[in-house]
From TrEMBL:
Pfam families: SPDY. Residues 57-114, 141-199 form the DUF317 domain. It comes from the Bacteria. It comes from Streptomyces bullii. Residues 240-267 are annotated as: Disordered. This is DUF317 domain-containing protein.
Length: 267
């Protein structure tokens, strides 16, 4: 029996071969637009130069996200400016860091912090990662030993978050975060790092590694566009909701101060 074709596909639209890749940490970099389009839909400014590396800035100009594949070692740089609550911080991720895992951190930059205290190790432990002390370092390793996350304390007193993935052939990536990187961002990153869900890569973009598992799938371009647009639409909706809440918030504090000043003047 022939499968009935979904009528939503465009006329003459041909399916393209893609692959689901697992574990996601070894899937390769992926499409940078997975990160950049979400940030743009969340109100971030795209300050990239034509033909140059990606460079985006948060609406309040306190955080910058850059991706430069044209230099060695290249990759992602995320920099946060010092403010009243925390000091300056930065994160650096290699070019082969999967965009889905990078987006764990960058998506979190667009959302308010949770009221709950962050726990970087909880998402890893929930996925049965092995956590332990190794000297001065606290380490988590994935069940297949291809990915890790560490909080490192060096002999000179410095510390940092160090993470990454590597197969037996030495292919992979590393990343490090300064110790004052906001913990909720590191937790958002570790959540995506530990996720068991596979990620999708087009034919020709799947790394050659004995440590990965792949499943071939046929995908229509319209399907890919729909999935990508759903992510962008969600970002726009969340941004609109936050902006609306700010604009309708009553200014009771300002009025109270004004009333107090008026009373003192009449005296």
């Amino acid at each position: 029996m022939k499968k009935k074709q979904w009528q939503g596909w465009g006329p003459g639209e041909q399916a393209e071969q893609h692959y689901l890749v697992q574990p996601r940490a070894l899937a390769g970099g992926g499409d940078v637009r997975h990160v950049s389009e979400f940030l743009r839909a969340s109100g971030w400014r795209d300050k990239s130069k034509t033909g140059g590396p990606l460079f985006m800035e948060s609406p309040d100009r306190t955080v910058r996200v850059a991706y430069d594949p044209y230099v060695l070692p290249g990759g992602w740089t995320i920099h946060g400016r010092a403010d009243g609550a925390s000091g300056e911080w930065s994160a650096h991720l290699g070019r082969q860091a999967p965009v889905e895992i990078v987006a764990g951190l960058t998506d979190a930059l667009t959302r308010p912090r949770s009221a709950h205290a962050p726990n970087v190790w909880a998402p890893l432990q929930e996925q049965n990662w092995h956590t332990r002390f190794e000297g001065e370092h606290y380490v988590a390793t994935s069940p297949d030993s291809t990915a890790w996350m560490q909080y490192r304390r060096n002999p000179d007193g410095t510390a940092m978050w160090w993470t990454g993935a590597q197969d037996k052939q030495g292919n992979g990536w590393t990343a490090h975060f300064t110790p004052n990187t906001p913990m909720h961002l590191v937790q958002a990153f570790s959540t995506e790092l530990a996720s068991p869900d596979p990620v999708m890569r087009p034919r020709g973009r799947v790394p050659h590694s004995a440590q990965i598992r792949t499943w071939s799938v046929s995908v229509k371009p319209s399907q890919l566009s729909t999935w990508q647009q759903a992510r962008i639409t969600a970002a726009r909706a969340a941004t609109w909701a936050r902006n609306s809440a700010r604009s309708t918030r009553p200014r009771t504090t300002a009025r109270a101060h004004a009333a107090g000043d008026s009373t003192r003047t009449r005296r």
